[in-house]
Amino acid sequence: DQQVKQNSPSLSVQEGRISILNCDYTNSMFDYFLWYKKYPAEGPTFLISISSIKDKNEDGRFTVFLNKSAKHLSLHIVPSQPGDSAVYFCAAAGRRGGSNYKLTFGKGTLLTVNP
Amino acid sequence: NAGVMQNPRHLVRRRGQEARLRCSPMKGHSHVYWYRQLPEEGLKFMVYLQKENIIDESGMPKERFSAEFPKEGPSILRIQQVVRGDSAAYFCASSPTGYGNTEAFFGQGTRLTVV
To answer: Cβ–Cβ of B95/A49 closer than 8 Å?
Structure first.
């Protein structure tokens, strides 16, 4: 069973517009969420994270929103740039259970930003 | 300051052979994590090791798979008697402590193909 779901396998946006990537989770023990970016033939690179005590975290062009009641989070990229084209993975961890090191990943969303 | 180094980048093995995947963590990092990414899937946690200790191997198949992180040298993920279903990308990550997932840096991965 998929505990972290990214229902959109791909997303295409125009340069300069907003990219919104979505992620849903089912495990109520998750209290820490992360987004990773991955280029082909490379390892994932950490982008931004959010703790369950917050509903928003911003870092430059990247903002993550968390809706705990809906068990939903989203990553907003504004403005989108061609270099943002990559696979984006949503990941979650349950820190209260003492296994904060164990990340559960979604299947990823391929973002393509067109010039 | 080199990042997490994994080798080989690509590994081809015939069914029944052994596969050895190596991971050298970042300098100063004593915590290593192995993840596996099957085709069209997200990364899945396999094992968490500190120097000379296996902390959590709950994600590792019970048979044929083993991992170690000796006092000297890289961490090794060993797969005995490989089967086609072992074909995947194997990623290693390292962190200076065991807490705070944002501290974990991923290597470029080893792509194992079993023919």
So the answer is: no
**DSSP code for A78:** S
Percentage of chain B with pLDDT > 90?
Answer: 78
Interface test with B, best of A3, A99, A101, A110 (most B CBs within 10 A): A101
Under 8 Å CB-to-CB from B26, ≥6 apart: which residues?
B1, B2, B3, B4, B94, B105
User: With an 8 Å Cβ cutoff, are B33 and A101 in contact?
Assistant: yes
pLDDT over 60 at B100, yes or no: no
Integer Cα distance of B78 and B88 in angstroms: 14
DSSP state letters, B4-36: -EEE-SEEEE-TT--EEEEEEPPTT--EEEEEE
